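Input record (one chain):
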Amino acid sequence: MRTLWMVNAGDVAAGVEHASAALQSLPSKDQIRPIIALGKEVLGAVPAPQISKPAVIEFRECLELTGAG
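The corresponding structure, as predicted from the sequence alone:
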């Protein structure tokens, strides 16, 4: 939930980078529905003007690679 707090506090790049690193550090067998749901929640908290930032795009792609996209 730290990542969601970071994004909501305005530190979008750090928040999505943290979320991306956390997701990528998990073996694929541990990338389960509740984890992916948290990732989607983080992505959903990104303000519209920042959705095209490189860190956000990378995190979105990371989620898509898990099959969550």
